[in-house]
Specification:
Length: about 200
């Protein structure tokens, strides 16, 4: 499971990554970092895999920490992966990199992705829209748009523009600068879309 808040273990980068696969070679570790688009920061580490990270070493920014967590998932190679707001901490600058990394981690495996970011949810094979703890809509992105329900209203508000508050019927959808977060304020502040990939 990869959550919004990830833990970077104290020790070398190699030690952190081999928690997922103790017998991983350096080539496998670097390949996992490549697949999650982490080479931009990894290549700047003077000691490479021997760089100390975590509480007693280099503090990774939220995007790098999330990429490290996603690389561990690739090394573990589970049949099913759960991602709970795994790209939420990216902010504007890192959103694209983490979305691409998340796509790589969920490729060719079953995934349950909990997301408020509609762009992330839209990539799923099956989307469940939850309101007040209940599933209120289910389908693909195109199916949900065609139905004209909550998902459609949120998607319309999201695509209408960044940093814009749009009236969407009985509620208000707020989109952030990245344009990936939207919620229906009149029903449940924790309106969630959950995507599943087969």
């Amino acid at each position: 499971m990869v959550s919004q808040e990830v833990h970077v273990f104290s020790g070398t980068l190699r030690q952190d990554m081999t928690l997922a696969k103790p017998d991983a070679t350096d080539a496998e570790l670097i390949a996992a970092l490549d697949l999650v688009h982490a080479r931009s920061w990894f290549d700047r580490l003077a000691q490479g895999l021997d760089t100390v990270v975590g509480a007693r070493g280099i503090q990774l920014d939220p995007v790098a920490a999330q990429q490290l967590a996603l690389a561990r998932v690739l090394l573990l190679d589970p049949a099913v992966v759960i991602m709970d707001e795994a790209t939420a901490e990216a902010g504007s600058a890192g959103a694209g990199a983490l979305e691409d990394a998340a796509d790589e981690v969920t490729r060719d495996r079953s995934a349950l992705v909990v997301a408020h970011r509609l762009d992330q949810a839209s990539r799923a094979d099956n989307i469940l829209v939850m309101d007040s703890g209940q599933v209120v809509e289910q389908g693909t992105h195109d199916q949900l748009l065609a139905r004209g329900g909550i998902y459609h209203r949120l998607w319309s508000a999201w695509t209408a523009g960044r940093n814009e508050i749009s009236n969407v019927g009985h509620g208000t959808a707020v989109t952030d600068e990245v344009g990936g977060y939207a919620r229906d304020n009149d029903s449940d502040p924790d309106l969630t879309t959950t995507g599943m990939r087969a």
